[in-house]
Amino acid sequence: MAPMISVSALSKEFTLHTQGGARIPVFDRLDLEVMAGECVCLHGPSGTGKSTLLRSLYANYKPSSGHVRVLHGKDIVELGSAEPWQIIEVRRRTVGYVSQFLRVIPRVPALEVVAEPARLAGVPEAEAQNRARTLLKRLNIPERLWSLAPTTFSGGEQQRVNVARGFALDYPILLLDEPTASLDAANRQVVVELIKEAKARGAAIVGIFHDMEVREAVADRLFEVTAYRRDAA
Ligand SMILES: Nc1ncnc2c1ncn2[C@@H]1O[C@H](COP(=O)(O)OP(=O)(O)OP(=O)(O)O)[C@@H](O)[C@H]1O
Question: Where is the ABC transporter domain (predicted)?
């Protein structure tokens, strides 16, 4: 079986053009494969590059060297060299991303924010809305808030809308950046259940989970993100 995600010899270094071209090496020659149904937790001290790796898997960052490949339908797409339209397609159908903070779009109601990914992927409107309602209900967002834009929602409510949006479509690959950081125990448990269900249907998941209970409940293994070492260059 082909891995859903394949990272090989991936290195990332940032260049700060606005600060005299300062160079920040983050990680160096990472290799990682994630299979369908597997959940890998990115691990390591603060600043080693966990978020940078997760964003690289979503093609937010281009590799400095090395490759990130994802299985998109029957094709293998190399994200570093893919055309922008291919990245859009991969994000539309294959890779879902739950960031820590919801990027709130003014005036768009929570229900629409959650239903949008399914709609964009071609799911019929009624079905997309139903799925969004079910998720908002499971994540304990009061129904009176569904028609309001999440701009004024609490941090935890915004995070739950974000989680609902990430699970609104059965993405084959899911990237989760601390999806439970602002949640109470009951809602953390709902997210754990959603992750387990996604694994059971064969999703390949890569996440950052600082909460030990969540990590132990969902992660099949830890992947140590090691910071760049000059002597390894
Ligand atoms: N867009 C960027 N431009 C420049 N430097 C960046 C950028 N994003 C991250 N970095 C740098 O890369 C390094 C790794 O950051 P990253 O956020 O990936 O670490 P992390 O392991 O996720 O940390 P934490 O656990 O604290 O969230 C840091 O030194 C950070 O300053």
Answer: 5-233
Indicate whether residue 24 lines ligand 1 (CB < 6 A): yes
Q: What is the ipTM of this complex?
A: 0.96
Question: Where do the structural domains in the chain lie, given as residue ranges?
Answer: 106-169
pLDDT at 227: 72
| Residues 40-52, mean pLDDT to the nearest whole number | 93
- Ordered DSSP codes for the chain: ---SEEEEEEEEEEEEGGGTTEEEEEEEEEEEEE-TT-EEEEE-STTSSHHHHHHHHTTSS--SEEEEEEEETTEEEETTT--HHHHHHHHHHTEEEE-SS--PPTT--HHHHHHHHHHHTT--HHHHHHHHHHHHHHTT--GGGTTS-GGGS-HHHHHHHHHHHHTSS--SEEEEESTTTT--HHHHHHHHHHHHHHHHTT-EEEEE---HHHHHHH-SEEEE-PBP-GGG-
The predicted-structure confidence for 83-100, as pLDDT tens digits, reads as follows 999 999 999 999 999 988
pTM summary value: 0.94
Per-residue pLDDT tens for 154-182? 999 999 999 999 999 999 999 999 999 98
| Residue 52 Cα to ligand 1 middle (Å) | 6
